[in-house]
Amino acid sequence: MTAVRYDVLGLGNAIVDVITRADDAFLDAHGMRKGGMALIDEARAAQIYDAMGPAVEISGGSAANTIVGAAGFGARTAFVGKIKDDQLGAAFAHDIRAAGVEFTAPPATDGPSTGRCYVLVTPDGERTMNTYLGAAQDLHPGDIDAGTVAGASITYLEGYLWDPAHAKEAFVKAAAIAHEAKRMVALTLSDAFCVDRWRHEFLHLVRSGTVDLLFANANELQSLYQTSDFDTALTALRADARFAVVTRSEKGCVVVDGAQTIAVPAFPVARVVDTTGAGDLFAAGFLFGLARGAAYDKAARLGALAAAEVISHIGARPEASLETLARENGLLA
Amino acid sequence: MTAVRYDVLGLGNAIVDVITRADDAFLDAHGMRKGGMALIDEARAAQIYDAMGPAVEISGGSAANTIVGAAGFGARTAFVGKIKDDQLGAAFAHDIRAAGVEFTAPPATDGPSTGRCYVLVTPDGERTMNTYLGAAQDLHPGDIDAGTVAGASITYLEGYLWDPAHAKEAFVKAAAIAHEAKRMVALTLSDAFCVDRWRHEFLHLVRSGTVDLLFANANELQSLYQTSDFDTALTALRADARFAVVTRSEKGCVVVDGAQTIAVPAFPVARVVDTTGAGDLFAAGFLFGLARGAAYDKAARLGALAAAEVISHIGARPEASLETLARENGLLA
User: Fold this and answer.
1) Is the predicted pLDDT of residue A1 greater than 80, yes or no?
2) Which of A61, A168, A223, B17 has a Cα at 20 to 30 A from B287?
3) DSSP letter string over B152-178?
4) Are residues B91 and A54, on separate chains, in Cβ contact within 8 Å?
5) Are the beta carbons of B36 and B120 closer than 8 angstroms?
6) How buried is A123 (Cβ within 10 angstroms: 0-12 exposed, 13-18 middle, 19+ buried)?
7) B215: nearest Cα among B282, B260, B272
8) What pairs with residue A21 in β-bridges?
9) Set of chain B residues whose Cβ sits within 8 Å of the Cβ of A68
10) Can you state the angle between helices B87-98 and A87-98, rounded to 10 degrees?
């Protein structure tokens, strides 16, 4: 059996966030669905960028944010995702490595440029995302190294991987290797509209046991089961998933494991500046706790702590040391 | 006589800031002078970037920050600086245009990449800068359009322009055109180490009247006159410069115009997060006030307000609307 080298391995779209403030009128004028993630092509990317205000560039990507967060708690981590050998790709690679994450995939030398997400943050702190996948489009099964996956306690996958053409094959390959090595496979549903695009495939992943642990927020879960009622969705989830965590913003989260259901409150936040990355960082703390053998309520509190940190500033990567925060809050010895 | 089309035209190095947090030990380990700006070559840039933590990219450049700040107050502005046609150059161009500044210089299609400044922010909010000039190195007199300069009430130049090979020729050309058109020429001394490199040339610019208005902070002024005593430096300045503004961090600023000396206090700041851009934004407010015919004390308060905004967050570009802030503080009708 392969020795454990990583607590968590992430697989996802490698994306640099291009973040600006915008008002609701801007979203309306550009036909954007507030709070959602829309996939855009290069022409639309140029159009949005031309129209939007001065921006800051901060590395992002859903699973990448999660892995950086887990590393921030002290987890041993690795990430697999596709960048190009351009300036944004260099920034992505630098930032994830500087966070302590192993990231060794060679950048593409031709094809589209490194993926970008134009993030519009409204005065209420809500973020509306427009993603140009770029080089992330080209993630394929050949990018999955069996030894790396077999050496990770948990392999964490983002639902957004269903959008690029071959990334889902990489996803399925990684899940098979992980299970062969008796490791855990986790999936986040990513986004309610992503669930809408891939509902049947996501349900199949959960019901077939390809995924052992499912992360979803209330919107995504209700989209999965096409219901406006949270409890109806939760009941359906209990029947399908062995193990799942559902986040509910300021209402905290619910951990479901077989017959067990545990509710854990959110951490208070003085002022919500930018909700980008809230779900990603919740998963970071939960996965870190899980990999280190913490009880569910403690893992969930680690997740809530990381989510609270990331929504208190611009960008989806933690600015403070999560390890220090966890110690200060009595969640780490 | 050319009609006034701009309140302020800026000429400076076009730079993207790459900002991270670092402790004093990191500065020591890498031989950096805290609070200073060091010019670095490509190899040193790579070495620093490899060693530093996860970063954010935000457009910068000293004079560019000032011009963006002036535009934020509602000034009509333009900027001249050299970028390359790469991703960082595109970000620089987008951000300055999105701030309402006219920026029409074509990017270089070959040669070094767009300039970068690696900014290390220590826990006390102080910033230590390492600048790879890149494409900014190639600013030359041909980039100066006579009509643009003649149409600007004030042409604002940064001392850092003395570092690239031909930028000083562009500077001198712009100053001559401005004076021919009876416009004002302003200079910031930029940095105490920059003053150390170019002391005699800067003194000549001031004494010869090539520069009508000089901006300096206390360190730069004391470096200019090679004295550890502020009052000695101020007395020397009064003899050399017709019009000057000296900023003194939390002690506010001093405006010197002939026999007149006016001291204006700083704006209180709840928490200093990152001092990058403090001097640049002070100049923004002062120049805006001056161009609109405000009295010196009011212009200085506009400067202090903009400086207070920019040191309360990461990055050297304002996050809030300076126009709104000025109205809220009774500095704009």
Assistant:
1) no
2) B17
3) EEEEEEEGGGGSSTTHHHHHHHHHHHH
4) no
5) no
6) exposed
7) B282
8) A121
9) 54
10) 90
| 3-class SS of residue B284 | helix
Backbone φ/ψ region at A276: left (φ over 0), alpha (ψ -120 to 50), beta? beta
The pTM for the full model equals: 0.95
Q: Are A292 and A76 in contact (CB under 8 A)?
A: no
Q: Does B123 touch chain A (CB under 8 A)?
A: no
Instruction: Name which of B205, B285, B272 is nearest B245 in CA terms.
Output: B285
Secondary structure element (H or E) that encloses residue B57, with its range:
strand B56-59
Contact present, A45 and A18 (Cβ < 8 Å): no
Mark yes or no for CB contact B98/A68 under 8 Å. no
pLDDT digits (tens, 9 = 90+) for B109-168: 999 999 999 999 999 999 999 999 999 999 999 999 999 999 999 999 999 999 988 999
* CA distance to A231, B72, B75, per residue, from B323 (Å): 48, 6, 10
ipTM above 0.90, yes or no: yes
| Superfamily per CATH, domain A6-328 | Ribokinase (3.40.1190.20)
Q: Is the pLDDT of residue B283 over 90?
A: yes
Q: Which residue has the tokens 């062995």?
A: A242
A49 touches chain B (CB under 8 A): yes
User: In chain A, what are the domain boundaries?
Assistant: 6-328
What DSSP character marks residue B11? E
Q: Which of residues 143-182 of B touch A (CB under 8 A)?
A: none
Asked if the C-beta of A60 comes within 8 angstroms of chain B's C-beta atoms, the answer is no
Beta bridge partners of A116: A16, A132
End-to-end CA distance of chain A: 30
Q: Dig out the tokens for A184 from the structure.
A: 């855990």
Q: For residues A261 and A255, is the Cβ–Cβ distance under 8 A?
A: yes
Note every long-range contact of B220-229, with CB atoms under 8 Å and residues 24 or more positions apart, other chains counting.
Answer: B220/B189, B220/B190, B220/B191, B220/B192, B220/B194, B220/B195, B221/B189, B221/B246, B222/B192, B223/B189, B223/B192, B223/B193, B223/B195, B223/B196, B223/B199, B224/B189, B224/B195, B224/B199, B226/B199
